Amino acid sequence: MRRGFRYAFYSLMALLFAAAGATVIAQDWRNASREPVGLAPDPALVKEAVVQVYGARAVGAKGIFGVHTWFAVKPTNAKSWTVYEVIGWRLRWAESVVVVRTREPDGRWFGSQPELYAEKRGEGVDELIRRIDKAARDYPYANEYTVWPGPNSNTFTAWIARAVPELGVDLPATAIGKDYLGRSVFGSAPSGRGYQISLGGLLGIAASGVEGLELNILGLNIGLGPSGLKLPLIGRIGPTLVPVVELEPAAHPAPAAQAAHGASAD
Question: Which of 14, 34, 40, 155 has its CA at 20 to 30 Å from residue 102's CA atom?
Fold first, then answer.
């Protein structure tokens, strides 16, 4: 059955490719730019904790259809960024596709311009970073990788996003693999909010206050939500809605209450 879906997918992709008149230009990935584009704050200047979620068109022909996504974190007073991502070709020499490393969070992905999908900073973000790290290390598909329909880098990003719904990550329609739930059929939407029904990442529907309503057909998403219209190949059409939100500071008791608490503690 999956082979039949795969054949149908490739046939559909060939038709879309021809209709769009797209051309693939060979590029030596070894010489492609990895330079940062200025979307991430400098750790030397920004001391508060920050979490960011990025995506950029994948390398080669895959980039016509989809993006590669990743998480980037900087704990309070950290002097560098840590990036969490999945790289499929690592299975050629390693046992896990999960990569946790220090690199520029907003660096070009082998020439492709990154896009910022979500950001959160301030008080309480260090706890989110702890949960992100745990989710990354608990990723259930660390020993496997499939470009379509998953598990892939977008499956990994959605796995983490579900663990930290406070971020409200709205992955685009081009994040193929985000709807892959393995053997599960029911779950939360990739943002960690709302609900999702997915049959192997090939067919399903998701609804939440973040994603809006999305229909998944053979791994291709069509939908409408707060971020606009979501379409295969294109991603989305609408305003840029990056939720740069500081967590609410913890409530502080009144001075009299503090004194009373201190007296009882002593």
Answer: 155
Q: What is the amino acid identity at position 104?
A: E
* Nearest one of 230, 177, 212 to 9, comparing CA atoms: 177
**Residue for token pair 């009299």:** 256
| Pairing mode, strands 212-217 and 235-237 | unpaired
Q: What residues have CB less than 8 Å from 21, skipping those under 6 apart? A: none
**DSSP character string of 182-250:** TT--EE--TTSSSEEEEETTTEEEEEETTTEEEEEETTEEEEEETTEEEETTTEEES-----EEEPPPP
Binned at pLDDT 50, 70 and 90, residue 238 comes out as confident
Neighbours of 154 (CB within 10 A): 28
User: How do residues 102-120 score in pLDDT, each as one tens digit?
Assistant: 999 999 999 999 999 999 9
